Amino acid sequence: MMMFWKSFDKKPFSRMGLTFNKTGFIDLAYGLILGATSITLVFLVLLLTGQIIAGSSILKPNFAWTLLGDLVVMIFVGIGEEMFSRGYCMSILRRSNIFVVLIVPNLIFALLHIFNNNIGVIPMINLFLIGLLFSFMFLRRGNIWMPVGYHITWNFFQGSIFGMPVSGSDADGLLTSKPVSENIFNGGGFGPEGGLIVTGLIIISIALLLIFAKNKDTGDAVAAGTESQSEM
Q1: Range of the domain at 139
Q2: Of 93, 117, 118, residue with least CA distance to 106
Q3: Residue 185 falls inside a structural domain
Q4: In this structure, which of 2, 16, 106, 174 has its CB flanked by the most CB atoms within 10 Å?
Q5: Residue 4 belongs to some domain of the structure
Q6: Closest Cα partner for 172 from 180, 182, 186, 161?
Q7: What stretch of H or E contains 195?
């Protein structure tokens, strides 16, 4: 991806949001915390409302060394998908109308999951909304690190910690979580990303981000703030 960008676009990597400075590391930390907190909140809501049951005790988790391997995979998935969907797709559309910049890359992001198990209308809507949340993070902060961090811990905690399906893929986690019945609230076999609980959380998250997140936009629709940050 990086070689393709450098060969054809001939712009610095900072245009993709790949900035390596203090701001980027802070945004990554915030993203990691927000992703873990958000999916933990989803898990607790599902558990307390009886939508899922935890098959193993929190005091006796199913620890395995494969957990570390899962984390490595989630890191690569988070970085790879964000570099493509946000860093690359949004950046090549940066001269387009802002609605094109926001809609097209996130339709692509959702369609990347079209062949996942148990895909449906609500999962596709939620994937688009999650992509939209990541896009606003990218625009607000001027780099991809907050969405990367959020993406990593959202997936890792969802599957490897709480044992819930991740975008239709079953996961073995520290806990074993199963839906009591498959419905539009818990997402059934697709996992919580296929349910209305996540729909509500993401919509609220987008609203809070737009209200409270500091905007580093300096004029370019996508390279928000990158021109004011150190380039590679």
Answers
A1: 21-46+63-215
A2: 93
A3: yes
A4: 16
A5: no
A6: 161
A7: none
Q: Distances from the Cα of 32 to the Cαs of 38, 54, 103, 151, in angstroms? A: 10, 24, 25, 8
pLDDT tens-digit series, residues 17-26:
888 899 999 9
> Which residues is 53 bridged to in the sheet?
178
Which residues contact residue 32 at a Cβ distance below 8 angstroms, ignoring those fewer than 6 apart?
Answer: 149, 150, 152, 153
In whole angstroms, give the CA distance from residue 227 to residue 12: 10
- Residue 72 counted as domain residue: yes
- pTM for the full predicted model: 0.88
The DSSP bridge partners found for residue 52 are: 179
Q: What letter represents residue 227's amino acid?
A: E
Task: Please write the tens of the pLDDT for every residue from 50-73.
Answer: 999 987 666 667 777 788 999 999
* Number of domains making up the chain: 1
